[in-house]
Each structure stands twice: as structure tokens, then as C-alpha cells.
Design goal:
The protein is α/β, with parallel strands linked by helices. It has nine helices and eleven strands.
Amino acid sequence: MRYLGCHLSASDGNLAMVRTAQSIGANTFAFFTRNPRGSKAKAEDPADCVAAMDALKQLNFGKLVAHGAYTMNLCTADPEARAFAASVLCDDLRRMAALPGNYYNFHPGSHVGQGTETGISQIVDALKLAMAPGYPVTVLLETMAGKGSEIGGKFEELKAIIDGVGSEQIGVCLDTCHVWDGGYDIVNDLDGVLQEFDRVVGLNRLCALHLNDSKNVFGSHKDRHECIGDGNLGLATFEKIINHPALAGLPMILETPNELSGYQKEIALLRSMEK
Ligand code: FE
Ligand code: FE
Ligand code: ZN
């Protein structure tokens, strides 16, 4: 089973997103838990969460991949801002508990000159505080392009966070544009990159993918998404990805520069390449 979907607007609630996803041929989706470029979250609606969970089950959707705000930097240098980011993470995880069994993905953070080691330990501290035992959602660290002081551009950094947290309920969301920009050659050696991931992190921790083509050349450390087939990854790479046995069954989320109709076309395109 291939679970394909895209980012959807959360403004009309969870059930509305399930219906929208269904209307464009998706069977998973992503959404921002709050304003992605701010920190404001909308009012909670428990009845909507229950209705959405029912609909997801009825429609045999794959796991959803919620996305934390871009502004949430768990390893920012200013202690007050860092504490605020940690409180946002706590609130996001508490809210996500209303959608049990799904994923919460976020960008690990940028250490802004504090150094990778300090950054990693600050991210670990925040996660340990936020993740209560028995928590019903798996938290995913996104692979990053390694722009500026971003943590997560190397598999080793993700592994260090996972080991530091020491929970079964933490995994990785692999972003195809980010790993390419970060220097992992999924165009010419997808198998080799997945083997490297398995060696460093373990494929059992790979829980979801972000499917994006890249506007940038290999190893550029830039992070600019392109529509599927229009960038430097190319259609052949996505054909390999969606048919790769190691990635079977994982939710795959489009974050390409598209409106809903564009996402619908890309989902159909990807489904047409299924073998
Ligand atoms: Fe992301
Ligand atoms: Fe992404
Ligand atoms: Zn990106």
C-alpha cells in the first residue's frame, strides 16, 4: 500500500482535511499544528478529532504527519526563547494526543553558533521534558539540508538525538529535497543512501517521507523545493522511491510549490508510476 498525500490547511479542522485529502486522491496528509511562521494555535475541538479519527479508519488512511512550526527552535541561544520553544513543543504534543497513533514531525533546530553538541543536548532536553511515558504519538525528526547552523543535516546528528531521548517513540521523516541538498545522493545511489541511513540510524526508525524535488544542485545546503519531476531529482528518482521495498507502507507527503489541483496531479503522477 502506498500512502501519498500533501500539506493541507488546518483552518477548517481535522475532518475537513480528511475529506479534502480524499477528494484529491490522497490517503494521508500533513498539516501545521499552529501558524508555521508564528506560534499561534487555534482552539481545540475534541469532537472534530474523534470524527476525523473515525473517518481515517473507515477510509484506511495511512498515519498523518503533523508538522511543528518553523519558528520553534529548541536550541536557540537565548534561554528565554528556548524555554518558549520547549513550551510550544509541549503544547503541540499534548494537542496531538487527541489524534493518537499519528506522527508529529518537526525541524530539530539551529544551534546559532552554540555548536552542534550543545544544540543536540538542548533538543534532547526539550524532547525528554515533553514526551511523557505512554505518550500515544511518535515524534519525528526531519532530515535537514544543513543550511546555516541547522541540526539534522547529517544522519549522525539525528541518531545522537534519538539516543539521547532513548524512547521507542521517536523516529525520522526523510525529506528528499533536504537530503539531496544536504549531500546524500539519492539520484545516483538511493540504495547506498538508505544503507547508510540503516547503518547510522536504523531503517526501523524511518517512519515517513517528504517528497520534494529540489531547485538546487547536489550538496548545496540550500533547501528550496521544486515540483515533482521539475528539479534536480527528476521523475526517475521518485519512481525508485515510491517503489522501493524499504520504503513501502510509509506515509509520503508532498511539500512542493502547489495549490490543491497541483497536488492532485502529482499524486496521480506518482500513483501512475507504481509498479
Ligand atoms: Fe519540514
Ligand atoms: Fe520537509
Ligand atoms: Zn524544506
